[in-house]
Design goal:
Strand content: 15-25%
Structural class: alpha/beta
Radius of gyration: 13 Å
Number of domains: 1
CATH superfamily: Response regulator
Strand order of the largest sheet: 2-1-3-6-7
Largest sheet: 5 strands, parallel
Shape: globular
CATH topology: Rossmann fold
CATH architecture: 3-Layer(aba) Sandwich
Distance between the termini: 16 Å
Number of helices: 6
């Protein structure tokens, strides 16, 4: 990724949350390039076409769960890190996410939405 702007695939079906997350990521000094998918199906197409360096996905989507992205072999084989975001606290979903290989689980709050760019930078090993 050296010398290339990091590409982030945001998978979020709530338009308000997608807009807040997109604004936070685009305002960050890291030069992120962002693609927004509204569901799992769009996300799999974007993985092939957009070739993201990082996926940030909501837990519950209109056509499945964000954790499905971590369990699909072509995502696992490409080793794309995944940050799973949820409006609810951890529990069973967080445990399943960790087993599937999700690198971070973040509960969506006003504060954590504003911290998403820094969390993404940490996952991508970008100096802050």
């Amino acid at each position: 990724m050296e010398g290339k702007p990091p590409r982030i695939l945001l998978v979020e079906d709530d338009e308000d949350h997608a807009e807040l997350l997109a604004r936070a990521l685009q305002a960050a000094p890291y030069g992120f390039i962002l693609y927004i998918a509204k569901n799992i199906s769009e996300a799999f197409s974007a993985i092939v076409d957009f070739k993201p360096h990082l996926i940030i996905a909501d837990v519950l989507l209109s056509d499945g769960q964000g954790v499905e992205l971590a369990s699909r072999s072509h995502v696992k084989n490409s080793r794309i890190p995944i940050i799973l975001i949820s409006s609810q606290g951890g529990g069973i979903i967080e445990e399943e996410a960790k087993k599937a290989g999700v690198c971070r689980y973040v509960v969506k709050t006003e504060r954590t939405i504003s911290e998403i760019p820094d969390i993404a930078a940490q996952v991508l090993h970008i100096e802050q």
